Amino acid sequence: MIKKLSVALVLWSASGVVTQFATAADVESLRGQTAIEDESRPPEPKKYAKDGEPLPRDYVQQPPLIPHKITNYRIDANSNKCLSCHSWKNYREAGATKISQTHFQDRDENVLANISARRYFCTQCHVPQANARPLVENTFKPITAISGQ
What we know:
Blueprint (H helix, E strand, L loop, with lengths): L1 H17 L64 H4 L4 H4 L49 H4 L2
């Protein structure tokens, strides 16, 4: 009985979900109306800022944005280009922001001698900013306590 009820429930819920999907004619990709077999033109290269001051944050706990381009930065299990400037050893000489102490804690908040494996791949959270047209409309506004406006 439970098996029949489960199957009926799945079929019923699936029938409602199907009606919510858009048809293929309603969907437009970021490539525009270019047919899949046609060659698309490459996007224009984005212009990243030269190394500069830290960028303002828009919300509480936002990871700092990268105020410079990171093209060809290598971040893998064997090397991390970010550490050449941002490590505690090199940040003063490089004039860079040093890595937060929180990057030296594991998920149980045990303090480690080296960067935590879960914080090693910087671009999981930190991203550079380019002067680029948004891909989708964005109406986000920071809360006034953060922006000071």
